Queue: 2 jobs
Job 1
Amino acid sequence: MTMIKVDHLAVSYGHGDSLLRVVNDVSFEVAKGETFGLVGESGCGKSTVLGALAGRNRQWSGSIRIDDETIGLKRSISQLAKQQMVFQDPFGSIHPRHTIGRTLLEPLEIHGKDNRQERVEKALKDVGLPLNFRYRFPHQLSGGQRQRVAIARALILEPRILLLDEPTSALDVSIQAEILNLLKDLRDREKLTYILVSHDLAVVAHLCDRVAIMQNGGFVEVATKAQLLADTVAHPYTRVLMDGSRGYVASRRPVDTTA
Amino acid sequence: MTQDPGTAMTKSGYFTDLHNWLINEDFTSTRQARLHKAYVAWLSLLANPLAFAGFAVVVTLVIIAALAPVLTVYDPYGQDLTMALKAPSASHWFGTDEFGRDVYTRIVYGARTTLYISILVTVIVAPIGFVIGASAGYLGGWVDVVLMRVTDIFLSFPSLVLALAFSAALGPGIENAVIAIALTIWPPIARLARAETLTFRNADFVVAAELQGARMGRILLRHIVPLCAPSIIVRLTLNMSSIILTAAGLGFLGLGAQPPMAEWGAMAAAGRKYLLDAWWLTTIPGLAILVVSLAFNLFGDGLRDILDPRNA
Amino acid sequence: MLKPPENILTVQNMSVEFPTLSGVVTAVRNVSFSVGREKVGIIGESGSGKSTVGRAIMRLQPPQAVVKADRLQFEDINLLTVPEEQMLSVRGRRISMILQDPKYSLNPVMTVGEQIAETVILHERVSRKEARQRTLAMLERVNIRDPQRVFDLYPHEVSGGMGQRIMISMMLIASPSLIIADEPTSALDVTVRQQVLSILDDLVTERNLGLIFISHDLNLVRSFCDRVIIMYAGRVVETIAAADLDDAQHPYTRGLLNALPSLDHPRDRLEVLRRDPAWLEN
């Protein structure tokens, strides 16, 4: 069953002479319950693809179908609830002057949901935070706790899809492990579909079933998790990124060095 | 945030418990979280003597205005020409004016006029300035250009001259003075609101709300207002003194409060004719204006330190 | 453990304390290690005190901080007692520091070439012309293909990778014997990181320097450095040869390794680090 179907997606920024095409003709499908990764270096367009899916970037062409509905430039309120986004920076993605409870109530009020108190409590419980955290302000929380709040805010509308934009790259290794485990548990329990953007192939290979490797706004290769782990990827650039996640390779000497 | 041993030790029993409950960050209710913020703000106000002095004067002014009939024995409008131009004495603390009215009584009632004008101006100016500035900052594009050019036009006039022109056109009187002052005070507020909105416009938490379907009104009210409010409140407090001075200036020029209304600027203007014989007629209202505007300025400066969102 | 043949830097029982309103906070506690002509990695999570160690060695700690140590010896200089005037000739000339983001370390209103030449003139009192020659040679050494053109660029005109190579050339032109690199590549993409690190690697080997490489990235430090110091809450919990990291003894080091997703050792669930209060006693 297909959850997301993207055909010939192209995304650009700006107008007229300053028009900048960031994503060129990208097509992919993500099945229900699948986790699809987008990997690449900065500026390759991976976050832009995610932005177009989330509705953040409206300057796109091609077709996007989410849960068998064609998505236009304007989305209905139920279409907005279908996919939710988790941002990279846990310090910038939560309103600094709202209590955690306020942050979680906000989407419920926008979407006119009932049983708000129960839903807030359930969301906090789902992401493993104590209930009295709802009275706290973000500056009293650690980075990992804030990222849990961000995930709770995304889950509270009961979406089918989570769009994860480098959800762990601002966190320490041990906290990253907790968040990745949490994401894995939530996916299995709530039957969620994920799209994960990351620069680290090890993180992507841990969570994803299939990975698209991006360079210069297009897909270089779509590899399966098995291919990554067995080291049978086809494209040399994929291998470069795999080496990168292993660390420094002493034997390799730079070929072209003028940046 | 850790508890300051100095303040904790001076409190005992119930107050220690209350202090600990307020300072504790392990909140069990939204009310405790709010009270905690207010209490921390109060403690930092206490730690800043100048700001606290300003705050005390402002509070005193409010109390004086509220209790004016209790604090005075004379009628502020009651004339007694036999008692005209008497120097300060035990029965008339600040002396009497050319109609024999008690200057102390008129100063106390004048506090009402001053507060009336400054509060009314603030209540008019804050929402106008915020809506114009925040809309310009949030929507951007041609809306921003149009709104900001209008703001620039208002900014380019000296405020007292503009207020003078408006009062002259609308006719003298305290309500018209309020409108005239409000028209000159809103542009800097709008500029400030726009600048603050621009810094938060593309923050992840605003984008998150947009992606969840929040409309512009909701984002401005729920998300932008709490972030802009501190700097706008500080700005308005600092503006209080210029409102008071402009109001006094208009009163002095005869375009604000009309006789026999007790208003500090108008009182100073009336006393000008007797400057050499009766110094108290100009000096006392002048001092009142000075003290109150200074207090608002000190309080505003302190508020800036306390409310600054970058300290949170 | 590898025994370095000759120590450039010896740190014995160093502590760094910050007085705050609520008492003294000890950011670094009783840290001991030595650096020879080798690449030593310092690994730790945020708040572990790893950057504070680097700054304390450079004597660049904030003014209110108190640095205590039994011994803090850099070659013939006692860093604990050396006067600040003498420190000026040590800093940048004999110990250099490379920071995370070159954009903040370079002066935005001077061309990068002038800034490097300035370093040469300041430390070696050579003529402007000679400084330029030295700078161009150094830029070429860090694999910048067109040094004449790059010399006249301003910091905002160069990419992240090029900026970091410029920083490296600036830090190495005075021929220091110790380099402290604080997260030098965390702002860079993997391919650029590989280039920058291999240049740094070559220079360290070629000039026989000591390098302290501060990072949060276990895999990077493991593959780049000779020895690894693992810090936790201001303490050194373990010092181990990079090649033996998989056999690390301390539960914190083991926990970090197991928390890391890996392409070579995939596991269904990552191990969550259990922090043991006993680690804080030493």
Job 2
Amino acid sequence: MSAVLELHGVSAFYGPVQALREVSLHVNEGEIVTLIGANGAGKSTLMMTIFGQPRARTGEIVYHGENITAVPTFEIARKGIAQSPEGRRIFPRMSVEENLLMGAQVVNYADYAKNLDMVSELFPRLRERFTQRGGTLSGGEQQMLAIARALMSKPRLLLLDEPSLGLAPLVIKQIFGVLRQLNRETGLTVLLVEQNANQALRLAHRGYVLVNGAITLEGTGSELLALPEVRSAYLEGGH
Amino acid sequence: MAYALQLLINGVTLGMIYGLIAVGYTMVYGIIGMINFAHGDVFMIGAFIGLIVLTALTGITSIPLAIAAAFIVAAVLSGVYGFSIERVAYRPLRGSFRLAPLISAIGMSIVLENYVQVTQGALDRAIPPLLPGGVAVMRQHGFVVQLSFMQVAIVVVTLAVLAVFTWIVTKTPLGRAMRAVEQDAKMAALLGIDTNTTISLTFVTGAALAAVAGVMFLLYYGVIGFYIGFNAGIKAFTAAVLGGIGSLPGAVLGGLLIGLIEAFWSGYGPLAYKDAAVYSILAIVLMFLPSGLLGRHEVEKV
């Protein structure tokens, strides 16, 4: 198996505050990898650092064998990495359709109709809201739109930051089901950040635990699920 | 009645020119949150490029062809000016404190004015009327309401330019990219949008619109000077604020209103207080609608 994404000793700062401490991890082709950790552990920072926002101050980020540590954010996106980011970041004064078009822009609208069918099937609600402005959607609908927008770019690597946030349990189950399906059928590689560690570890092939900006544990989903320290910290309501 | 109709015609014509300039202010404000105080001078440069082209071509080609060439050359070259101004004076200051690019813009404005004064001379420059004549639309008590062909041309050209511009902003990938950068530049970058290029193209588009306005000003009044950018710029900026800065339809509406206020005040009130009237109305509107007539005030979910 070849690595799609590798981080080697990546540190990142917000001003004087160190948010990531020499993080090393890798995501292999066709894998779903999850990153779990408490609030403020640096999960979202890690997702944004992959895109150079903020830039890694030390270490190296490698995508398909290419060092992308210093590559401009928009060029990283053009290499086939898509992100549904923390806070959803829907364009509020654009319609649902325009938000989806923004996702497809990076691949020049390739397979637009096909991908639109796919995300409409996945989130029928978006179809109903097609001409409505993003800013007027509910939180859950915005979450669906953020994921759909990322999928419209036909990513080779999909970064999902808390896709379950604000969604009903049934919809979460559905999203995780779709991720599994996309992963099996199209080989989509996924890096998933979740607070909902139980479901994430069940879905993922492998996982990493992030504490205070550093990786403390790694293993397969089932290995991590079985570890007592993971169970007590992330699965049984502890913090 | 006839007199008022004449003022209406004059006011709409002037308002179209203000509206075109105002669109450039509001676009740049929308995308990088700064007031480009050099924008009025780009309008002036557009007028001068138009003058140079017209002077060079008069007698060589037909007049409509010369006018069309003046519009196109002025729009393209002013676009280059807009691009360069952003690269030289604003981009290096992006991420700096908010006042820095504003001061830089005022500096840029002074540079451009002096540059034109040095290269084109401090005296007013004139062209002969190129599109004379018109139609009498109404006669009443010996007063003839004139609609000149030039006024018709200005309104038609403005509406055509605005129609193309609206199509670009609402329907094309470039327009969507501009709006995306305006709403969330970081997210736009995550989706593969080159925000620097998008910002450059916004400046180019705004400058081209200002140049079209500049050439129309030249054709309408026949006389221009290096200083015309200041007054027109301030008026257009007022139009953008009146309409709601950041709102494109607002800029056009604001321009029209200011043109009309000026025309009617000049017609019925003391001419010396024309500008005072414009700014008083702006102040009154802002008191009741702080975000302007069509400015945003809806609450967005986050």
